Amino acid sequence: MLFQADFEVLLYDLTSTYFESAPPPEAGKRRFGHSRDHRSDCVQVVIALIVTPEGFPLAYEVMPGNTSDKTTLHDFLHGSNPSMARPAAPG
Questions:
Q1: Would you say the pTM of this structure is higher than 0.85?
Q2: Is 38 a member of any domain?
Q3: Which of 6, 18, 50, 79 has the smallest number of Cβ neighbours within 10 A?
């Protein structure tokens, strides 16, 4: 087992980071959205992270700033994003 990591339980967390800059063109991931930092005046990106209980990061994704939190876990669990796919069981 790699680093004695246990894949039975994975932890999933979201955060966001904002940019104090002029709003970008429509293309790209910097968008206005719900701000955890109470900065509705700034564009942001949403960052998802998956780690083992031991704290080893397994996957991350940077999403548009207007991504709804409740949609991100569903996409991970159903494998719609290959970079967020669950690791294969050791053995």
A1: no
A2: yes
A3: 79
